[in-house]
Write a structure and sequence with these properties.
Blueprint lengths: L9 E2 L4 E6 L2 E6 L1 H7 L2 E5 L6 E2 L4 E7 L3 E5 L2 E8 L2 H4 L3 H4 L8 E8 L6 H8 L1
Antiparallel strand pairs: 1-2, 2-3, 3-9, 4-6, 5-8, 6-7, 8-9
Length: 125
């Protein structure tokens, strides 16, 4: 099975992705992760203003198959949360790189463990 991996994104081994606009980093879960999870039924995210730490859990995604922690690829302050997910968690499945994004963080630092697209493709192959 082939999964979409976008070249412009960076990935954690735990399947979160990042894209950067200045010091703001948008975070989501990869196409591979949403497929492994199955139908997402609930997402728990931090509040705007909360601090997250690179490599640490910041939330939970619950599917019909499992409950999985979400890990921060960067450290910093949460500046936006995708509130659409609270009413429509299935957006994580439907559009993991678009409308299914999770949160945005004003980055203080980032994980040394971020993978480029080729390294992430190798990991999930």
């Amino acid at each position: 099975m082939s999964f979409e991996v976008l070249d412009e994104l960076r990935y954690l081994e735990s399947h979160e992705w990042t894209t950067t606009d200045g010091d703001t980093v948008r975070i989501g879960v990869s196409d591979f992760a949403q497929d492994e999870l199955g139908d997402v039924v609930f997402v728990e995210l931090p509040d705007v203003g909360d601090e997250v730490a690179a490599g640490e859990a910041f939330g939970v995604v619950e599917s019909i198959k499992a409950v999985s922690d979400l890990y921060a690829p960067v450290s910093g302050e949460v500046v936006a949360v995708n509130e659409d997910l609270f009413d429509r968690p299935e957006l994580v499945n439907d559009d993991p790189y678009g409308d299914g994004w999770l949160l945005e963080v004003e980055r203080d630092s980032e994980s040394d463990d971020l993978l480029d697209a080729d390294a992430y493709r190798d990991q999930i192959a």
